[in-house]
Write a structure and sequence with these properties.
By secondary structure, this protein is α+β, with helices and mostly antiparallel strands. The chain is 43% helix and 23% strand. Strands 5-4-6-3-1-13 form a six-stranded mixed beta sheet, sandwiched between helices. Helix 3 crosses helix 5 and helix 7 runs antiparallel to helix 8. Bound molecules: alpha-D-galactopyranose.
Length: 392
């Protein structure tokens, strides 16, 4: 079997060894990565575009079949086990809910699965906005599809993973995270049209720069409830426009004129939420052109604008994220920076010149500690391939 180049062999071996020690069987091992998103935030569930890429940090899942109807789960990281009956799948607290959510989707869709053993490990930081949960869901779907020869295509697995998140984690997420994890391609970002689901791989090479993620190490509890509120606010804006323009089905179809005419007079907050989305969809299209031309400076400026919009108009930033973006603003070695993902914590994504990374990371860590009394961690993200089988 051809091995993916980006596989973290020690991590894959570790999960395999733990699995074999615990379950006394030889597993299939699947790798499914976390993701970054260059630009296009909170646009996926508004049928706009996103520009994510899979990264070199991933979840590894080892699986084998059982002869009974039970599911035995083990998290290496948490050193926790869970046993459930296939007939009794329901949401639980913590990591296992993402596995069970996918099992639930498979069962509901009539796929013939039996009992199985599953062990899981990974190096995607949890709660950092790098989509560790989507990675677990995609890894599980891919693993069970292989294990039981279900013949499900990748797009269907992505949709099931998204539904699992809706029904078992209770967050009405868009499709970006799962899509990026499953369909990632080395050194390419994915320009995904979230309405048609057509996608284009755009080469992503930064040459003398890198993508650096600064982790606030906070995850405010508002994150999931406010996420659902933002979705409702966008839907309300669309409903008001639709009264006059029945052909408008999402903010993808809306123009600033429509917002000014039909939303602004009704509700200023909803107007600002919708305005951000309409602007962001256009900003992504322009940013994508910058990237294709190799104009990283222009793309980076747009990332700063995105942050401004997410913070001031869309209201999903927090003081820790704002601090990290403000800190790097004006630094000539930083071409772009913004909060990434759903918001209310997690990471900022930065494009930084290679020679400045170490020094800046040291400075910002110190400043962040002083200002927020919190430790900052940082990672360099390389763009790697999506979900794959790495051992059998
Ligand atoms: C989370 C969701 C995605 C997307 C982003 C914001 O990561 O899972 O679907 O909506 O937030 O862009």
């Amino acid at each position: 079997m051809q091995q993916p180049q980006d596989i973290n062999r020690p991590m894959a071996d570790k999960v395999q060894q733990k699995f074999e020690a615990l379950f006394k069987a030889k597993p299939l091992v699947i790798r499914s990565p976390g993701r970054v998103n260059i630009i296009g935030e909170h646009t996926d569930y508004n049928e706009g575009f996103v520009l994510p890429g899979a990264i070199d940090k991933a979840i590894y899942v080892a699986v084998s079949t059982r002869t009974d109807k039970t599911i035995h789960l083990y998290s290496v990281d948490f050193d926790e086990t869970l046993q459930v009956n296939l007939a009794d799948i329901k949401p639980v607290k913590g990591w296992a809910t993402y596995v069970l959510g996918v099992v639930d989707q498979l069962v509901k869709n009539g796929h013939p699965i039996n009992g199985f053993n599953l062990a899981l490990d990974g190096d995607v930081p949890i709660g950092a906005g790098l989509s560790s949960s989507a990675a677990v869901e995609c890894a599980t779907a891919f693993a069970l599809n292989e294990l039981f020869s279900l013949g499900i295509d990748k797009m269907e697995m992505v949709k099931m993973a998204q539904k699992a998140e809706h029904s078992f984690a209770g967050v009405r997420v868009g499709i970006m995270d799962m899509f990026a994890s499953m369909f990632g391609k080395k050194d390419h970002v994915i320009k995904l049209d979230c309405r048609s689901l057509q996608h284009e791989y755009v080469p992503f090479q930064l040459h003398n720069m890198k993508l650096v993620l600064f982790n606030t190490n906070v995850e405010h509890s508002l994150a999931s409830s406010e996420y659902n509120v933002r979705r409702q606010q966008c839907e309300q804006g669309v409903a008001w426009i639709k009264e006059r323009h029945p052909q408008v089905n999402s903010l993808r179809d809306a123009t600033m004129e429509m917002l000014n005419q039909y939303v602004k007079p009704k509700d200023e907050i909803i107007y600002r939420r919708c305005k951000y989305v309409v602007e962001e969809i256009q900003r992504l299209l322009n940013g994508c052109e910058d990237l294709k031309k190799g104009d990283i400076a222009a793309l980076g400026q747009k990332m700063f604008q995105t942050h401004e919009g997410l913070s001031k108009e869309y209201g999903v930033s927090c003081k820790e994220l704002d601090f990290l973006v403000d800190y790097v603003k004006g630094n000539l070695a930083v071409l772009g920076a913004r909060m990434m993902g759903g918001g209310f914590g997690g990471c900022t994504i930065n494009i930084i010149k290679n020679e400045a990374i170490d020094g800046l990371a040291a400075d910002i860590t110190k400043a962040y500690k002083q200002a927020m009394a919190l430790d900052l961690t940082y990672y360099i993200a390389e763009i790697e391939q999506g979900t794959s089988l790495v051992a059998q």
